[in-house]
Every structure is written in structure tokens, then in C-alpha cells.
Design brief:
The chain is built from 34 helices and 22 strands. By secondary structure, it is an alpha+beta fold. The strands form 6 sheets. The chain has a 7-stranded antiparallel β-sheet, with no helix packed on it. A 7-stranded antiparallel β-sheet has the order 4-5-16-7-12-13-14, with no helix packed on it. Strands 1-18 form a two-stranded antiparallel ribbon. Helix 20 packs antiparallel against helix 21. The longest helix is centred in the C-terminal third of the chain and has 20 residues.
């Protein structure tokens, strides 16, 4: 063990002081994410369950809970909350029903609601509305002319550049707008940054990696006018560019590799969306298309093949990675949709739409009707299910294969013997085996969920499981039972894409059914139909009554068979759309009756987009109980039950190969569900439905409805509305993000909020100029980088101009006018990546999947998934968990994967310095850098110069060389005194010097 020396103590103290110096600075204002968490989760809980007895009108036990001050004051029992300590807070104890206090008195809060309050208290019980909203007037009622006149809602205007005095300073169209503001205040721009500083700045900004000494030297020596332009082009062409700027986007869309519910199930396929984003930036995918694909890529992929189809389907991971809630997250899907809407609004529009879930937005012209108009679009979308404590099986993942290929693969798996349990999901979009709807653990019944819609509650039960395996090669665990009564039971699901008679072709249908018992002998019957809409004209209708089964034939119905109560039957149909006829087969294995020559219903309008089971029989009355399972609508033929191909001798190997191929074809992405307008939820509670709200865009941005003849959820239309020319927000919001990525803050400092609670733009005309250029360039993000980075504004020194101070002018202490480049700390990922690169340990290959536990591993809220996987790849590829953040990313202010992060915080705390002193990762990479220095140079001064060139992109001063020499000598002396072998002293002393370079502010900051 090395004993401390005076020089080591001094250096260590200096390192700690450098990091601690700013630790006492005032904290930044509460982030938008904190405000959103409070408004969307905490306040509605308090309003719904607490204010009636502890609000303005009534204060039982002298306790009010409608303000933070009142909560801190408390009531007869003392303060209700101890900030940061949920276990000691009476409010949390009460909702956990610990001890004598048990609130609310009439009913328990859900586990997720209790967790929300506990998390709020643990975060310090912030009440952001009291401060953050003080400057914005609360609005009510219809949209006004004043609302429409708000700056961010005005059309983008590209005005002529202003006249400036120092015209020689201007390098491109960005600069006049900045220079004019400076000159109007009597200020001067800073001088140009030196070339070493400039290339280091651009390298970290565009790729997140430091320049090599060779790259620095080449740029310093290149005095051609376009030298920096060529550096920028090289950086933009590097694969590292997409990794850096893809990470910016992943912050905004709250990317995570886990689902976020209480057990935080891992999502093995999430990485495909991460890689899609990185690839999109590297390919310079036009931003408007980037938006379209993330909202509706699965729809736009229709007609595409191969890699293009897979890429576009994967893009909808933006929606799929919305956070899950609760231990049975299907019951909290409305919160997942809220997370989707909130992130969509912030990412693409700079609007906090989630605030309108419970009531009209208090500050911006966004109503609750606007919210539920969008809610209907996403509620008509099928989200994948990664598993949860109550339902651990994964379901409804999207196929990256075009439909026919997916169906063919599924058939191969079925004919090879199927796969165990519910791991084989349907790959054609029709969720007809009811596994996702099956009862949760300990329950006796389940409920139909997306993509199924239901009325008057048919039940999902294990007793309704079909025994036939012709569809998927295995049995599941649940089916649907329609009861024996005269009720109006109904269930329906959308067929995507719709089939049309004009397109021709044959579609194949499968249905397993059982009349449960003779039961009621009434005249009623259940109907199975393929139709245009759940209540629209049907092409085929099959009726199950107490006396037999009949099916449509033109304008009539004819029997197709009889049944034995309690026996399962299989029904298969082949529908010839062009000739408007169908044939079929019905029966059990070994006893199948075929029929053909049936005509499609005379009243059918030629569009087939819905499967429906309901009580609309030929006659009204009591119906027999009916079990339904294994519904499929496909383009390929479906084999009869009992005719599955014999399993080959090498069944296990063949099946494993097919299942592996199937798993490789899946994406954590969305698909079309069953289109339906949503009901407004009073106070944001799905148990309190209100009026139906037609699906449409925000009223303030046009209010366009989803057309009546539109097929599907409306996501295709939403994608177009978001990026259409008349929407002034999309381009403004994105160019502001790009500007923020280069300058550390946007022209609008609240990058996710362009509403009344957000900041006003510091340079509004420049923001509009950038937005106009962005659209004119074909929405090219790389073109916007070039425009910004090649400006004189970007290439300024970080030291303010001496002329401004000499003239006695206002020095603009916050640099709002951009009179110099803002010095800022690197994000967590570039710090780690730079250390890895300098240590020689950086693996530049793409990340790929994570080594998650095997499929089928279960997790619970008391034993959630948790892991940290070591990796030598770039930090964008680190496994990102929702509930338990990666320890390194948490230390250096990485993004919160539970909410959109528009702007990283920038804390400076002593533990960051201790990381550079003590962390094994730093020691390992420092040893790698030491080995590289020793191998590259034989003289001490040469090694020091190379060390500075590699880590800081500059030459050391003579004093720094002398100081480093003294440090190395003292360190080796101490090593010798400690008995370290001579062969180790050189490497260990240079490793120690490397750690001091890593820990410098100059290393972790960019000038």
C-alpha cells in the first residue's frame, strides 16, 4: 500500500477542490420532468383521494394537503411529510396502512399509486407549481385570439438578415443575427478559438470522442480556407457521429432497455430501436421522415421488403418503449398511453400535452378533449408486452418480416412441433389466442385487452382453451367464454390491413369453438362475422345456436353442421374476394365436413376489416354459452386439426433453429390495433368515462379529424400532421435541439416546452431562420450541423472579447447574447468514451443485444430485474435500466429514462473526483494509457508531451513538464519504499499521472 506524501496529498486535495468548488452553487430550477411527474401523477392522487377531507373546505385533524406549506406544517399528529424520507412520513405510512393511520379510510390506493407518493416524498416532495407557474396566467375556456397569437404558434418567417457594422466577422447566415444583438448592446464577439481548441470542441460535439494527436496536428498545419469545413465533413461522415447524436435523441424519447413496471422486466429487443436511431442519424434520414417512421413506420412499411421493411417497423419502438406501470401493467395501460402522448408532445411539438389528462391545460391552449382525441389514436394501437409480475410472458411483439414471410415462418414452427408455453406469438398481427388477456396469477377470469375491444364483458378463462394445435403447434392457456343469456355481449378486433374485393385474392380464416352445454334452449344465437366495421355490413356470418350452426349464403343462411355440446370444433374458411364466394370445413380430427359454393353476403360493401363475435343472431332471445379460441385471418392456408406434419427425427434441433430465427425477426415495436374513438376520462380515471372524443389533431394546430374512411388507428395521419408545412413547431423544436447540442442550451432554453411556462427565444429571428433553412434543406440534420458549426458564432473563443470590458459595456454575464462560446462540462458518455479510447480499451463495434437472463425468467416487485453489464463499447450501448439507473450514468448526470430529458443537469460533486481517483475502470484505462505512452516514447519529456496531446489536445508548458517530472519521481520513490518491484514502478507512476490528467477540469470540460 502506498503511503501518502505531501505532493500526493496536495494533488488529491486540488482534484477534490476542483470538483467541490461548485457543489454549493444554487441548484437549478425544478426540471420540466419533475413538474410533469407532479402534475400528472401526484396532484391527481391528492385531489382525488385527499382534498375532500384535507382541502380548503374541510380539514380533518387540522390537516391540509393542498399546498406544500400546509403539508410541511401538518396537523394534530405533526408534519405529514419528511422530505426525502418516505418511511418517516405520516402521509406515506397512512397510504401504506401502517399502524393506526390508514388512508383513504374507505379503500386502499393501488400499489402503483402508493409507490408514486413514496417516490415523490423521496425526491423531496417538490411542488413545482408554486414557483414555476407563478409567471404564467391560468387560462380557461375556448381558444382565444391571444392564444393563437402566441409566438411559437405563429408561422415560421425567414426575414432578411439585419445590417451589422463588423461585416468581416460574418461567415454565414447565422452570424448577422447574433452580431446585431451584440452590437445593439455595445458588445463585441470574442476572438476566434485557437485551432487546437476548435478541433477538440467540434470532435466532442459531433462524435463524442476526442481528436487524436495526428488529427490535431494535421488541422493546425492546414492553413487552407476550407480546412475546418473538411474536418466537419469528416466528423459527420464518421459512424461515431450517429452514436453521439443518436444519444441526444434517446434522451428526448426516454429510451430504456427495461419496461419500467414494478418488476422492471428486461426488453431484449429494445436495442433494435436504439440502433435504428443511430443509423438514422448516420444516414442523415430527413427529419420529417424520421418523425413519420417513429409514429407510423409499421403502416408505411406496407409494400416494402427485406431490410427496409424491418427498419421501418423497428422505428415505432419510439411508442413501444413507453413506460409500463404497476405489477399487472395491463391494468395501467392508460398511464402508458399518457407517457406516449406526453413524450410525443414534448419531443416533436415542444408542448406538455400530458398535463391535459385530468383537466384542460392550465397555461397552454390544449384541452382535455385534445388529449383524448390523441388518446384514441394510441389506444387503437397494439403495444408489445414485455412481461410483468402478474403476466410474465412476452406477447404481441412486432415481426420484422413482411406478412407472407412471417406467416410462412410461423407455419414452419407449428409443423415442427410448436414451442413451449406462450413464447410463440402470432406474427401476422391477429391476436386470436387470448394469451395476453388470460387471468393474472391468482385470478379466475381475465379481460379482453387491445387489440380486442369488448362490450358487456365476455370472460377470458382457462376452461375456454381449445385443444387444437394446427394454428401454432401448441396449446395456450385461455380462451373466451360468452355466457348463456340474452345479453348484448360483443367482442371485435381489427384486421390489418383491410382486405378489399377489388384487390382480389383469397384469405384464410380459422376459428375453434365449443357450445359449452345444452344450457339455454332459447331462440338466440351468437354470431361470428367478418365485416366492414364491428356494426357494419358483413361478408361472412356464422351463427351458433342451440339447434345447430348456420352460415350466410348470399341473402340467405344455410346449415353447415350440427354439434355435440361440450365438444370442441374447428372451423376454417377460404374467402375468394374477387369472385365473392367462400368455402370451408368444419369438424374434429378425423370427422371433418367440407362445404363450398357459398356466396358472400349480398349487402357486403367490398371492404373486410373486422372480426366480430356478438349476439346479433337471426332471432333475438337467450343464447347458449359459447367458447371461442384460436381466431386467425391469414394469407396462407391453414391446415386441419390432426393433420400436422409428423415431427422430424431432429425435431429439437430444427425447432430450436426456427424459434431462434423467429426471435431474431421480432422488434419491440407497435402494430395496428382496433380503431376506436376514446371516451374522455374524468379526472384522468378510466373508471369514470365521459363523452366519446373523435380522434383528431390538436385544435390549436388545426384540429384535423381522422377521416371517416381512414383505415387503422390514425397514426399515419398523425405523423403527417406533425411535420406538415403549416405546423410551425416541428422544425423550430428540432433546430433548437440541434443548437442546444452545440451550445449547451437552446435558443429556447426550455427545449421541451415552447408553451407559456417555457422560456422565450433569445434570438427569435435566428430560430426562424434556422427552421426555414432546415425545411429548405430537405430536413437534413447534417446540413443544420454544418450551418451552425461553420458559423463565426460557433468558432468563437470561450473567453469574452476584451474590447467589451474595456468599453465599460454590460458584459452579458449569462452569455445570453452569445458573445463568446459557452464553456461546458462533457456529458457522462463522452467522458467515459474518451477514457476508454485513451486507454486503448474502446471497442468501436456496434453494441447489439444485452446478455439478459433467459426468456421465461420471472421477476417481482420485491425481486425486480437489476443488472449492470460491463462493456468496453461506447456508452450509448450501455444497458439502460429504468428503476435502477446505471451507477456511472447516475453519477455524471445521465438522462432519466422514465421521462423525456431535454437538457442534462450539470452537477459538480466530490464523488465525481473520487471516481477518477478510485474507480477500477479509471485505474484500468490509466494503466492502458501508461503502456501506450511508454511504448511510444523513450524520453520522459516526450511522454509528457504525448500525454497532454492525447488527453487535452495541446502542448504542456515548461512548468507543467517540470511538475509532472517531480510527480513521477516522488511517486516512484514512494513505490520503491513500499517494496514495489522495479519493473512495475515505471508503469504505475505513469498510470498515476494519467489519472491526474483524467481528473482535470480541462479534460472533462470543453472550451
Amino acid at each position: 500500500m502506498i503511503r501518502s506524501t505531501r505532493s500526493l496529498l496536495v494533488m488529491t486535495a486540488a482534484m477534490l477542490a476542483a470538483f467541490a468548488a461548485r457543489a454549493g452553487e444554487p441548484a437549478k430550477d425544478r426540471t420540466a420532468a419533475t413538474a410533469a411527474e407532479f402534475e400528472n401523477r401526484v396532484r391527481p392522487l391528492l385531489v382525488e383521494h385527499c382534498f375532500r377531507c384535507h382541502g380548503a373546505k374541510k380539514q380533518e385533524s387540522n390537516l391540509r394537503l393542498d399546498s406544500r406549506a400546509a403539508i410541511m406544517q401538518g396537523g394534530d399528529s405533526g408534519p405529514a411529510v419528511v422530505p426525502g424520507k418516505p418511511g418517516e412520513s405520516l402521509l406515506v405510512q397512512a397510504v401504506r396502512r401502517q399502524g393506526d393511520l390508514q388512508m383513504p379510510p374507505d379503500s386502499r390506493l393501488g400499489a402503483d399509486q402508493v409507490a408514486t407518493l413514496a417516490r415523490w416524498v423521496a425526491d423531496g416532495a417538490p411542488w413545482p407549481a408554486e414557483a414555476a407557474n407563478a409567471g404564467a396566467a391560468i387560462r380557461r375556456g375556448a381558444i382565444t385570439a391571444e392564444d393563437r397569437a402566441f409566438w411559437s404558434l405563429q408561422p415560421v418567417r425567414d426575414l432578411p438578415p439585419p445590417a451589422v457594422q463588423a461585416r468581416g466577422w460574418v461567415q454565414n447566415s447565422v452570424d448577422p443575427w447574433v452580431l446585431a444583438r451584440l452590437e445593439s448592446r455595445g458588445l463585441h464577439p470574442a476572438p476566434p478559438a485557437d485551432r487546437r481548441t476548435l478541433i477538440r470542441r467540434a470532435s466532442f460535439d459531433l462524435t463524442g470522442l476526442p481528436p487524436t494527436p495526428g488529427e490535431v496536428d494535421a488541422f493546425v498545419a492546414d492553413r487552407s480556407p476550407d480546412a475546418f469545413s473538411r474536418v466537419v465533413d469528416r466528423l459527420l461522415a464518421s459512424p461515431a457521429y450517429g452514436e453521439r447524436w443518436g444519444r441526444h435523441w434517446l434522451d428526448v424519447i426516454r429510451y430504456a432497455d427495461t419496461a419500467g413496471e414494478t418488476a422492471d422486466y428486461p426488453v431484449r429487443e429494445a436495442y433494435r430501436y436504439r440502433d435504428y436511431v443511430i443509423d438514422a442519424f448516420n444516414r442523415d434520414l430527413p427529419y420529417d421522415q424520421f418523425v413519420r417512421e417513429q409514429i407510423a413506420g409499421d403502416i408505411l412499411a406496407s409494400g416494402k421488403d427485406g431490410a427496409e421493411y424491418a427498419r421501418m417497423v423497428t422505428a415505432t419502438g419510439f411508442i413501444a418503449i413507453s413506460r409500463r406501470f404497476g405489477f399487472d401493467s395491463e391494468n395501467y395501460h392508460y398511464l402508458t398511453i399518457q407517457d406516449t402522448i406526453d413524450t410525443t408532445g414534448q419531443a416533436f411539438l415542444g408542448l406538455t400535452l400530458g398535463c391535459a389528462r385530468c383537466h384542460d391545460h392550465k397555461y397552454d391552449p390544449v384541452s382535455a378533449r385534445d388529449y383524448y382525441a390523441l388518446y384514441g389514436i394510441f389506444d387503437s394501437t397494439l403495444y408489445p408486452f414485455a412481461g410483468a409480475e402478474q403476466k410474465p410472458a412476452t406477447r404481441s411483439f412486432a415481426s420484422r418480416l413482411p406478412r407472407r414471410e412471417a406467416e410462412a415462418l410461423r407455419d414452419q414452427i407449428a409443423r415442427s412441433g410448436g414451442a413451449p408455453g406462450p413464447t410463440i406469438a402470432t406474427l401476422d398481427g391477429m391476436d386470436g389466442d387470448f394469451e395476453i388477456q388470460k387471468p393474472a396469477a391468482g385470478g379466475s377470469k381475465g379481460s379482453l385487452v387491445s387489440p380486442w375491444l369488448a362490450e358487456d364483458g365476455p370472460d377470458v378463462i382457462g376452461d375456454a382453451q381449445s385443444p387444437f394445435t394446427n394454428l401454432a403447434g401448441r396449446k395456450g392457456g385461455a380462451g373466451v367464454r360468452f355466457p348463456a343469456d340474452a345479453g348484448g355481449h360483443r367482442a371485435w378486433q381489427h384486421i390489418w390491413p383491410a382486405r378489399r374485393a377489388a384487390d382480389g385474392g383469397v384469405i384464410h380464416v380459422n376459428l375453434d369453438f365449443r357450445v359449452v352445454s345444452e344450457g339455454a334452449k332459447g331462440p338466440g344465437a351468437y354470431r361470428f362475422a367478418l365485416a366492414h366495421g364491428a356494426g357494419g355490413p358483413a361478408a361472412v356470418e356464422v351463427f351458433f345456436g342451440s339447434s345447430g350452426i348456420v352460415a350466410s349464403d348470399g341473402e340467405k343462411t344455410r346449415p353447415i353442421g350440427t354439434f355435440r355440446p361440450g365438444t370442441w370444433y374447428n372451423l376454417r374458411l377460404a374467402i375468394d374476394l374477387k369472385h365473392r364466394t367462400y368455402s370451408g370445413a368444419i369438424g374434429t380430427p378425423g370427422d371433418i365436413v367440407s362445404f363450398d359454393g357459398r356466396r358472400l353476403a349480398a349487402g357486403w360493401d367490398g371492404i373486410l376489416d373486422t372480426v366480430v363475435i356478438d349476439g346479433r343472431g337471426p332471432t333475438a332471445g337467450v343464447k347458449p354459452a359459447l367458447d371461442i379460441d384460436n381466431i386467425a385471418v391469414r394469407q396462407t392456408a391453414i391446415p386441419a386439426p390432426g393433420t400436422e406434419s409428423p415431427a422430424p427425427a431432429d425435431r429439437a434441433r430444427r425447432l430450436a433453429e426456427l424459434v431462434a430465427r423467429r426471435n431474431d425477426s421480432l422488434a419491440y415495436a407497435v402494430a395496428e390495433g382496433t380503431p376506436e374513438d376514446a371516451r374522455l376520462q374524468r379526472r384522468g380515471e378510466p373508471t369514470k368515462p365521459g363523452e366519446v372524443v373523435p380522434r383528431r389533431f390538436l385544435e390549436i394546430l388545426g384540429g384535423d379529424p381522422v377521416p371517416r374512411d381512414a383505415e387503422g388507428s390514425g397514426r399515419r395521419e398523425l405523423a403527417e400532421w406533425l411535420v406538415r408545412p403549416s405546423n410551425p413547431l416541428a422544425a423550430r423544436v428540432m433546430v433548437n435541439r440541434i443548437w442546444s447540442g452545440h451550445f449547451g442550451s437552446g435558443l429556447v432554453a426550455t427545449e421541451n416546452d415552447f408553451g407559456r411556462r417555457g422560456s422565450r427565444p433569445s434570438h427569435p429571428e435566428l430560430l426562424d431562420h434556422l427552421a426555414a433553412r432546415f425545411v429548405a434543406s430537405g430536413w437534413s440534420i447534417k446540413a443544420m450541423h454544418r450551418l451552425i458549426v461553420l458559423s463565426a458564432t460557433y468558432q468563437q473563443s470561450s473567453e469574452p472579447a476584451a474590447a467589451s470590458a474595456a468599453a465599460g459595456a454590460d458584459p452579458d454575464p449569462t452569455n445570453a447574447l452569445l458573445g463568446h462560446f459557452p464553456r461546458r462540462r462533457l456529458d457522462a458518455e463522452p467522458i467515459r468514451d474518451a477514457i476508454l479510447m485513451l486507454g486503448g480499451g474502446l471497442d468501436r463495434s456496434p453494441g447489439g443485444p444485452h446478455p439478459f437472463p433467459p426468456v421465461g425468467t420471472t421477476f417481482t416487485q420485491h425481486g425486480p430485474f437489476s443488472a449492470v453489464y460491463p462493456s468496453s463499447r461506447r456508452s450509448v450501448y450501455l444497458m439502460t435500466q429504468r428503476i435502477r439507473r446505471h451507477p456511472y450514468l447516475a453519477l455524471f448526470d445521465g438522462p432519466d429514462p422514465n421521462a423525456s430529458t431535454a437538457h442534462r443537469s450539470d452537477t459538480t460533486v466530490p464523488t465525481q473526483a473520487l471516481f477518477f481517483l478510485n474507480d477500477p475502470f479509471v485505474h484500468e484505462q490509466a494503466e492502458g494509457l501508461a503502456s501506450r505512452l511508454i511504448a511510444a516514447r523513450s524520453d520522459e519529456a516526450g511522454r509528457v508531451r504525448l500525454a497532454f496531446a492525447m488527453t487535452l489536445a495541446r502542448e504542456p508548458t515548461d512548468d507543467e513538464i517540470a511538475s509532472a517530472s517531480r510527480f513521477l519521481a516522488q511517486y516512484q520513490t514512494q513505490l520503491a519504499a513500499d517494496g514495489a518491484p522495479a519493473i512495475e514502478r515505471e508503469r504505475r507512476s505513469w498510470s498515476a499521472l494519467a489519472r491526474t490528467l483524467f481528473a482535470r477540469n480541462e479534460f472533462v470540460f470543453v472550451d
